[in-house]
Amino acid sequence: MTFKSEAPYRHGSAPKTALLFCNLGTPEAPTAAALRRYLAQFLSDPRVVEIPRLVWMLILHGIILRVRPAKSAAKYASVWMKEGSPLKVWTERQTKLLQGMLGERGHRLEVRHAMRYGNPSIASQLDALRAAGATRILVFPAYPQYSGATTASVVDDVARWALKTRHLPELRFINRYHDESVFIAALAESVLKHWKQHGRGEKLVMSFHGLPARTLQLGDPYHCECLKTGRMLAEALGLGKDQYLVTFQSRFGKAKWLEPYTEPTLKQLAASGTRRVDVVCPGFSADCLETLEEIAQEAQQAFLDAGGSEFRYIPCLNDSAEGMLALCSIAERHLLGWPTQSAPDDSALRAQAERARAAGATA
Ligand SMILES: C=CC1=C(C)c2cc3[nH]c(cc4nc(cc5[nH]c(cc1n2)c(C)c5CCC(=O)O)C(CCC(=O)O)=C4C)c(C)c3C=C
Ligand SMILES: [Fe+2]
Ligand SMILES: [Fe+2]
After folding, report:
1. 160 and 93 within one domain
2. What is the pLDDT of residues 226-251, one digit of tens each?
3. Helix-strand-coil percent breakdown of the chain, rounded to 5?
4. How far is the CA of 141 from the centre of ligand 1 (A)?
């Protein structure tokens, strides 16, 4: 094992804090070649596909990476923005805004973003932060709900970097914010704004990214956290049980995934007479292929083909004021938990220690 060589430690220098905002990652271009590189890295992660390695590598390289890249590239092309992939564009904007907002609130810290798959990698950004002198790094995965496939995979990658790093910064991780009041309030505000502008559908469908159903039995909290976000959002909007649904999208492979599935549910709604639906994706902090293509295009078409008449997609929080307020406030509360530079008045603590010592001596 070799460790990285680093600038010598300067004794007595003040702690320097940094924030690393991590998202999933996205291909560099809407092309089959770029998709092949991206999918090869993403789908080789044992946190994402939990089947025996050898079998999976044969399927992945023998079938999936031959067929899927071209199909997925065409889908990406349909949502590509002039600055690049939507997930990249929104994540970069959120990072810039976080830097500005936290700065205005008096936090002297560097904010960077990293992608779990593709670029900029988590390791490269952690190296850059260390080189800039960061001694404390708060790692903020963009996912509101915790899952092994997403949040834990970010932690794995940070741990891999740590294994090679001599002088580690203090590290903290935000595991989840699915039930934080600021986050629920931001979602509710985005739905209310949408209703005000476009009118209100008969049902609000809350569509979350899926996971294999077995992850629920294996102890992954993701399903429960999605349901909780859904319930809290419904409460914030004053919706009754018959006015909203929680569904799961983006099934991958043939195994059973978390149910109910989004698209079949939308078709059933249309078939049973629901004409107008609003769809929101509260598991995604930013719009991406899965929301813009799979929901706003494909699922919409399926609903209309099945007899629905109006399908309104409610965008993710992206760089909205309410969304940024939520991200900033969540980051801030985690940053404030870090000990401050100024020595606290420890006289009460000292007296307590003396009492404990005296009690111990007489016991
Ligand atoms: C929001 C949380 C996400 C979970 C949980 C998740 C699990 C998961 N995903 C796949 C397979 C794919 N996902 C893909 C895209 C994708 N997934 C998420 C988020 C979660 N995934 C996002 C934000 C995106 C969009 C990325 C973008 O560039 O816009 C894709 C790639 C696209 C495609 O080819 O369909 C795959 C593949 C699995 C297997 C999984 C859990 C087991
Ligand atoms: Fe995914
Ligand atoms: Fe998808």
Report:
1. yes
2. 999 999 999 999 999 999 999 999 99
3. 50, 15, 35
4. 14
